[in-house]
Amino acid sequence: MPRPRAASPWRRALQNLVIMSHHTMEIASDFIQQAPPGGLHEVYNDLRHLVNDDNHLRNSTAQAMSTYNISQMTQVTLPSGAKSLVTRFNVVEGDNVFYDSTTGATFAFDHFTHEVSAGSGSHAPISGFLAELERAAKDYLNEYYPDGHATVSVFPHGDGAAICFASDRYSPRNFWNGRWRSEWILSGSSLKGEMRAHVHYYEDGNVQLQTKKKADVHVADAKNASAVVKAILAAEQAFQQGLNQSHSQLGDTTFKALRRALPITRNRVDWEKIALYKVGSQIGGK
């Protein structure tokens, strides 16, 4: 039986390049998924310079860009000037055509440039209780999200509704960006939600805070839009108050636990004389 021919050096090199390219694109997709609020375009442009192949990068990271934008509930401004969201609840076609819940207008969304264009079709706009719910949610948004850029949309979901809030606030002069998003599913008298906060601070460093909390609330009067929104308000306020309390204690508890307030001798170190200390005698107390 003839022995199989060994792969030529050029073929082995090509196989290694293919493997390296695949791993590179996996890493690039991971970077995109971890992009901080307001930093997606900067991350992608940096990747363009590193990869130096725009077509290959775009084709290989298209899914990652789509997943990121949808999971972040990206806010968009429609050709009509109205605000809407890119979410998993209003996808019409593929992963780049969505519909606005208020008007029913469809729109195409470019996941790379975030450009929005009018769609060719239309979708039934929400009405009845869902429209009332969206109006009540917008009143809540206007009162409690006065700063930054915030949007809420309500979509039909199963036998109930999906209520999506997104708020971005960027302060590049102070080197920080932040994003809040919450998703609520109303089914009968059950209201289940997940709230997420993501803050990026990048002055002389790169620090990110990502936190989330789930909530399960019973709404006695679930056919009352105001009652549903009040339940959301109570849950989100509790989450916010918990965050405020935990961060107010950072200096007194968490940060102090990271280091010893005094050396083991319980005496303060005279740093000006540290060079004169003898290890084992003065520091060790022997």
TrEMBL record:
Pfam families: F-actin_cap_A. Belongs to the F-actin-capping protein alpha subunit family. One of its GO terms (biological process) is barbed-end actin filament capping. It comes from Fonticula alba. Gene3D superfamilies: F-actin capping protein, alpha subunit, F-actin capping protein, beta subunit. GO terms for cellular component: cortical cytoskeleton; F-actin capping protein complex. One of its GO terms (molecular function) is actin filament binding. Keywords: Actin capping, Actin-binding. F-actin-capping proteins bind in a Ca(2+)-independent manner to the fast growing ends of actin filaments (barbed end) thereby blocking the exchange of subunits at these ends. Unlike other capping proteins (such as gelsolin and severin), these proteins do not sever actin filaments. PROSITE patterns: F_ACTIN_CAPPING_A_1 (PS00748), F_ACTIN_CAPPING_A_2 (PS00749). It comes from the Eukaryota. This is F-actin-capping protein subunit alpha. Heterodimer of an alpha and a beta subunit. The lineage of its organism: Eukaryota, Rotosphaerida, Fonticulaceae, Fonticula.
